[in-house]
Specification:
12 helices; Rossmann fold; transcription regulation (chains A, B); homodimer; DNA-binding transcription factor activity (chains A, B); 343 residues; transcription cis-regulatory region binding (chains A, B); 6-stranded parallel sheet; DNA-binding; DNA-binding (chains A, B); 3 domains; LacI family transcriptional regulator (chains A, B)
DNA sequence: CTGAAAGCGCTTACAG
DNA sequence: CTGAAAGCGCTTACAG
């Protein structure tokens, strides 16, 4: 049972395939009668043009690639949904690619996407080996970076001001009276985390409460790893009174470690996350966190990718959005007398 | 800067395009020397065959469609990840489509996917208007239903035994001593929920603790809606001592409603969910829930879709997997004297 | 073993 | 306004 082709409708309507094609694409001039007849036949035959064939003729595939670390991570699944919705509205489908922040996966996926002649690619994952991206950027395939940055890469990007997000977290903790703080950072490959930590440290330093380097722990981005790292911190003699976590997953791990260690949050330990995912609304206590304006960011990504914002391809846009502190229940004033746990 | 085509490598290697094609696909017989030379040229020119062109010749597009209600819902985002990984291993990409359980979206997406000549489609979303699916099933496009069923549709399916899942939930609550229970169900369109409720009711009935119909509330699948419905239930004079929720989202809503109403979980109210998503590990108390063997299910879906399990297309497989009770902290014995809240 | 040629389902100049 | 024809980048018989 072969699908009906343009030939079938042309024959059925008694016209040439060129006319059918023109009718569909609104090109050329076609007599109204002929056009109506053609549409009627298409309807009757349930004709659906093959995007494969038209893509081969140099038209679009109406498919976009989305590279993120992991769709099953709520932060990224929320992004994936926004991207999908906007894409769908514009007639595009999106191929989601979870990279686990591994370069080999990034490479493999990009190669795959290229072979499929996609129309554009959104990169929201960390990449170490930038050569491949450089090369990609040199081709005609539109790229936009989302919430990540690769220095020296000439592409559009829409970012959150992660540095400022870090200062917001620090400011909040400082205002509450904390002076003994620690941070759980993501892997150094993740440029956004690096910025967040920088901002955090900077604000602390400015306030004369500079953080010691060994109170900055690097983790993989998972609840389990956050728990492990936070547990380590809580066992130290000089326990911090507040913890800044570079994403909500890590913060939740911290919450769990605190519970296990019998440390009350927020009374004995304040915890602040980043991203404002659904997870942060679900924990007890609910998580204070830094929000990124995701919806707007995704919208801008589209403007850049398939809209006219990205048209003048001479200058690459770099759009930076403002983060926001979302105060919930996991942060409070530090305990009156800081517990100096002695072994 | 046009991409390099098969002609470029043929010319460069001094052979015909047919030989290049054969070399790539391991077809026909090619002299070892020629073959090596061809590969060397492909490498040098960075030649990547166009899947568009080969798809037009009737070969696969190596693209799969995945229809689910919502990627940003953790249950489905976890599925999406498993699907992606298995697909990736087999050289496929997947286009994720969030339907919100709306038929119009289902139709639009399916049409889109058909035009893109995808190789197969996984349907994990509720569908009311089955005509369209019937028609789809009549075509050559492989389909497999995942965790959802449409009666009368002749396609492969891999399911959890939702009815049994419901009885597990009931059995657990019964064993704990609960007799006054209620349920938060999803929309009736969701066949799996219907089965879960049926099983739950059945087990209760068997135990002589039949549930009253007005203690079964239907909700949209969101935390907010679960909270609303649970709140309603908790305000009743005859408050239930246990709540079975058809998915974790609803259960979390129930947890939140209980907290707001000052009802302690699990001391005064037991709550049990379904799906065992990451969310259930993150709440306080952690959620007792019913788990589906998702990884295995996704594996089977692939066997059916692109493996040999689905080959003999005469008989459609219907594979039913066993659910499992995951006991955590949100369920316990009912309070000694059941509170009879009088207005 | 190897290559010339037809064809997949479209789009696009180009004549009429 | 309309249609014949070439071509997109491949694959596949079919001769040699």
């Amino acid at each position: 049972m072969k699908a009906t082709t343009i030939y079938d409708v042309a024959k059925e309507a008694g016209v040439s395939i060129a006319s059918v094609s023109n009718a569909i694409n609104g090109k050329g001039k076609i007599g109204k009668k002929k056009r109506d007849e053609i549409f009627k036949v298409m309807e009757r035959l349930q004709y659906k043009p093959s995007v494969i064939a038209s893509a081969l003729m140099g038209k679009k595939t109406y498919t976009l690639g989305l590279l993120i670390p992991d769709v099953s991570n709520p932060f990224f699944s929320e992004i994936a949904r926004s991207v999908e919705d906007l894409a769908h509205q514009a007639g595009y489908s999106v191929i989601t690619c979870s990279t686990d922040n591994k370069d080999e996966r990034v490479e493999k996926y990009i190669r795959l996407l290229e072979q499929k002649s996609i129309d554009g690619i959104i990169i929201g994952t960390g990449v170490e080996n930038t050569d491949m991206l450089m090369q990609l950027a040199g081709k005609s395939l539109p790229i936009v970076m989302f919430a990540r940055e690769v220095s020296g890469l000439s592409v559009h990007s829409v970012l959150t001001d992660d540095f400022k997000g870090g200062t917001f977290a620090a400011g909040h903790l400082l205002a509450l009276g904390h002076r003994q703080v620690a941070v759980l950072s993501e892997n150094f490959k993740v440029s956004s985390s690096v910025e967040r930590v920088k901002g955090f440290k900077f604000a602390l330093f400015e306030a004369g409460a500079a953080i010691e380097e060994d109170y900055i722990l690097s983790c993989e981005s998972s609840i389990a790893d956050g728990k492990r790292a936070a547990g380590e911190l809580l066992r130290r003699d000089n326990r911090p009174t507040a913890l800044f976590c570079c994403n909500d997953l890590l913060a939740i791990g911290a919450l769990q470690a605190a519970r296990e260690a019998g440390v009350a949050v927020p009374e004995e330990l304040s915890v602040i996350g980043f991203d404002n995912t659904i997870l942060s609304t679900v924990t007890t206590p609910a998580l204070t966190t830094i929000a990124q304006p995701m919806e707007q960011m995704v919208k801008l990504v589209f403007e850049l990718l398939i809209g006219n914002l990205g048209d003048r391809d001479s200058t690459k846009q770099r759009i930076v959005m403002q983060p926001e502190l979302v105060q919930r229940e996991s942060t409070a004033r530090p305990p009156k007398e800081v517990t100096q746990k002695v072994k």
